[in-house]
Amino acid sequence: MMRALYSLVVTAAQPFLRRKLVRRGAAEPGYLQAIDERFGRYAKPAQPAAIWIHAVSLGETRAAGILIDELRRLKPDVRILLTHGTATGRAEGERWLRPGDEQSWLPWDTPQAVKRFLLHYQPAIGVLMETEIWPNLVACARAHGVPLVLANARMSAKSLAGTRRLAWLSRPAYQALGAVWAQTQSDAQRLAQAGATVTDIFGNLKFDAAPDEAMLERGRKWRATSDRPVVMFASSREGEEAQLLRALAARKPSGQQVQWLIVARHPQRFDEVAALVKQAGLSVSRRSEWGAQPAPADVWIGDSLGEMTLYYGMADVALLGGSFEPLGGQNLIEAAACGCPVVMGLHTFNFAQAAELAQEAGAALRVNDMNEGVERAIALCLDPAQRARVAVAARSFAASHKGAAGKTAAAVLALLPS
Questions:
Q1: Cβ within 8 Å of residue 413, ≥6 positions away
Q2: Is 217 left (phi over 0), alpha (psi -120 to 50) or beta?
């Protein structure tokens, strides 16, 4: 009864979704691609029985890529259907497509659109990455005999509170999942409270990512072009860049002892961030305008996708985006794997255990606010011996938590219908 009411609401909202996509597409043209797929309508036929993996955005798509590589290692002839919710996720997902694979938007969660999606692609199994649970999607998959699992599953205390407020809708969806493989014991406990039956704890897939060595080396060479150590603000979020600029303005000339590099989390904000830096009276050099090496400037702007390894190669220290505002933090595992020390704020609830373990291992430093973060980052840059110790700890931390990819891939293949 309650899901029927929910279905009426999301069905009635479809015209508003179309308008939202058009508006979003003005800034990010990727949202204008294949809009009909959002409503379960497709331009060409599909081959059935692929392993369907849903990765809503950029971070989930990178985790999905690690799983796809392991699936191909165990089953070379595997075919993949990769779905997304954001333009950045879809663009990143193209890296993992092979002949015979397919890519699509996940349909809007109406019974009609989801049914058309399942009948069109006829996947052998569905793998939802990390957090993405939709009531009609889960119910329709079960009705059509498609095993649906939640992989690399995580749930913060904040997300659990929101889930409990909508328990009448979310609990049946979690209960209907065929399997749930959690990242940590804490995630498993919260997922169980949400209604899921957690079948195993495999760890975090992102630990199994190997940095692109060629990209890492290129970053190191570019780092050598600066006569100052480099501090990167990695995956910064709205409001945080302004905090950084205020902290720098209050710390002249100490803030000028390092080269600053800002890489915003969302590409639609690249221009905005560059404008903020210029308004603060600082010169800007953007990655998109570099030739053989970065051009001199007060602040470098990393305005490209798929090059975080390059930027970590350039950085001596990274401030962790999303952790200086109550946004939950960003993934610090890639930084650790690249041997880049991390300075993080108080807000890391989206990656709570990884952040805590990194801090315990000496791979990351926790600070109370941006002012302290800037001070600690500068101090670490100017102490090569201490920085080297933290870099070694970061690599050891990343290496010691590998293994989730093999466990997850084997579990997916074990659920494939014979």
A1: 71, 74, 75
A2: alpha
Distance CA(158)–CA(350), nearest Å, equals: 9
Angle between helices 370-381 and 240-249 (to 10 degrees): 60
Spell out the long-range contacts of 356-362 with Cβ–Cβ below 8 A and sequence spacing 24 or more. Answer: 357/397, 357/401, 358/332, 358/394, 358/397, 361/393, 361/394, 361/396, 361/397, 361/400, 362/389, 362/390, 362/393, 362/397
Please give the Cα distance from 236 to 269 (Å, whole number).
Answer: 10
Domain residue limits, the chain: 2-203+403-414, 213-399
Rounded to whole angstroms, the Cα distance separating 312 from 222 reads 11
The pairing of beta strand 317-320 with beta strand 364-366: unpaired
For 229, how many CA atoms within 13 A lie in the half-sphere containing its CB?
Answer: 19
SS (H, E, C) 382-404: CCHHHHHHHHHHHHHHHHCCCCH
Tens digits of residue pLDDT in 208-229: 998 999 999 999 999 998 889 9
Helix (H, G, I), strand (E, B) or coil at 191: helix
Which residue in the block uniquely carries the two structure tokens 């929101």?
Answer: 162
Q: Write the pLDDT tens digit of every residue in 128-148.
A: 999 889 999 999 999 999 999
**217 catalytic per annotation:** no
Q: Considering the entire predicted model, what is its pTM?
A: 0.85
Burial class (CB in 10 A: 0-12, 13-18, 19+), 315: buried
Please, what CATH class does the domain formed by 213-399 belong to?
alpha beta
- For 2-203+403-414, CATH number out of 3.30.1490.100, 3.40.640.10, 3.40.50.620, 3.40.50.11720 equals 3.40.50.11720
Q: From the candidates 60, 241, 307, 325, give the one annotated as an active-site residue.
A: 60
